[in-house]
Design goal:
The chain has 10 helices and 14 strands.
Length: about 290
Amino acid sequence: MVENVLNIGVVNFPTNWGDKEKNLENIEKYIVEAGEKGVEMLVFPETCLCGYDYDEEVDIHEKLAESLDGESVSKIKKHAQKYNMYVIFGFSELVENSVYNSAAIVFPNGETDVYRKIHLPFDEKKWAICGDEPKLFETKWGKVGVTICYDTYCFPELIRYYRAMGARLVLNVTACPDNACTMGAATLSLPAYSFINYVYIASANLCGQEKYSHFSGGSCVVMPNETKGGVKTVIGTFFGEKGSDTVGLFNGVIDLSLADKNTDIPIYDGDFRAEKYAELYQHIAQNN
């Protein structure tokens, strides 16, 4: 029997650029705080383990990358097991001789999985290679999907895929800086995708000044509202709104059954035509 009620947390996280040890210490502190509040699933931002900004002279991503079975994940495993919590956080992942922009998924039993960012914008192409696979992981609340930043805001196919596969919750691990392009994409896409897909989106963003970029947080959980005519923020503060730049953990209880109840449109109950979209995308692939 799939459960519906989930205590979920998102973190407005300020990084210490290039200081993995300090960032890990802060991640651990937030996990302990969340555990004491009964949080069952905790989401951290993109690249929160080492910082986001790219510097050609000191490539922290290459320098500080580690594998999924590295020291940082091993330490987080112990907290996840202690508090019976899922912990999802962004890091630069070393796989053989390649680096990915990844989100580690640590399960309450200590097992791990990973999502590797499929779409890489701007300087990310200089230090990471693209992942190729979406990531759904099974929980007692059903399937949960994972996206990272650009994946979420500019490529609606991924969230639609997760929802069509039965996920009622998508986790957006993000580093969305304060500029018109990125903030515009985030503020428009999250409500739209939540509404048209009838899905909860939990987004965790960096917060504060990094080496070059400034981040104003906005970590939150959005969902289709009960009027079936819009979206509301149920945890945290949405991008750009007053208080969205407050550093810290934000958590609360959500009822995932509302993802199915807050619509009268049967998109995923007969109207969704995956086979037709496959034809269309195949046509695009053949002509590009």
